[in-house]
């Protein structure tokens, strides 16, 4: 793994799909085997991404996960979106949550294959934290934007990185690996689509990082 430098910045983690859960890992392998055969290419290892952002107020975890319970505030949840179909999002089991979690945890971070410091710029780190509350809450597993890939957790990460001025297209998963959905996030960010941002299911009240930092100090 690439070591972080400096106390503030943005760290990206590449975690094998299904780390910590055999069911998701098996489904991912089946999906990739089918996709590879359809696209006439070798199968790849699949990865999902997560971020840790370090600012003077503390360390934030940014990740998309299934909704755990109604107490999202304790995990820094800034929004929820539907899984599979928009109507399905009326049921908690078919919703995902987007976290901006101060001093939070990434359960499978110890299984990360690669760790990359993307930026040491504290202002860019703050912009990224603000961007979390703006990410399009599209239907997970669908290609609503006709980007050529489904929307998922990797889409969300790529969207935010591209949004704050990092070249997400140049950020690659570990050798021999693939991050399905990454391209969708780049396409969505570059289009700056108002229609895409309107495709939200639930947006929780949020505050800017500067304001959140002030509250953290109180």
Descriptive account of the structure:
This protein is an alpha+beta fold and 218 residues long. It has one domain (9-207). 29% of the residues lie in helices and 24% in strands. Strands 1, 2, 3, 4, 5, 6, 7 and 8 form an eight-stranded mixed β-sheet that branches. Helix 3 packs parallel to helix 4 (182-191). The model is unreliable at 19-28 and 193-218 (pLDDT under 50).
Q: N-to-C SSE series?
A: EHEEEEEHHEHHEH
Radius of gyration: 17 Å
> Separation of termini?
36 Å
Number of strands: 8
Poorly predicted segments: 19-28, 193-218
Tell me the domain tally. 1
Enumerate how many helices there are, as a single number. 6
The 3D shape can be described as globular
Average per-residue pLDDT, rounded, comes to 79
Assess the beta-strand content as a share of residues.
Answer: 15-25%
* Proportion in helices: 25-40%
Structural class: alpha+beta
Q: Main β-sheet: number of strands, strand sense, barrel status? A: 8 strands, mixed
Summarize the structure.
This protein is of the alpha+beta class and about 220 residues long.
């Amino acid at each position: 793994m690439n070591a972080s430098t400096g106390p503030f910045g943005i760290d990206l983690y590449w975690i094998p799909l299904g780390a910590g859960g055999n069911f998701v890992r098996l489904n991912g392998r089946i999906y990739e085997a089918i996709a590879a055969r359809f696209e006439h290419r070798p199968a790849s290892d699949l990865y999902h991404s997560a971020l840790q952002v370090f600012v003077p107020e503390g360390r934030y975890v940014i990740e998309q996960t299934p909704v755990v319970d109604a107490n999202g505030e304790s995990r820094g949840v800034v929004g929820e979106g539907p899984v599979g179909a928009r109507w399905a999002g009326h049921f908690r089991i078919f919703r995902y949550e987007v976290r901006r979690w101060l001093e939070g945890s990434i359960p499978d971070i110890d299984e990360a294959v690669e760790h990359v410091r993307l930026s040491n710029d504290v202002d860019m780190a703050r912009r990224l934290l603000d961007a979390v509350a703006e990410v399009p809450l599209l239907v997970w597993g669908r290609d609503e934007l006709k980007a050529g890939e489904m929307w998922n957790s990797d889409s969300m990460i790529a969207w935010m990185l591209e949004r704050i001025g990092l070249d997400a297209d140049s950020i690659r998963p570990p050798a021999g690996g693939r991050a399905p959905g990454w391209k969708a996030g780049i396409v969505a960010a570059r289009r700056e689509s108002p229609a895409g941002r309107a495709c939200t299911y639930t947006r929780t009240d949020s505050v800017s990082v500067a304001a959140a930092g002030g509250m953290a100090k109180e």
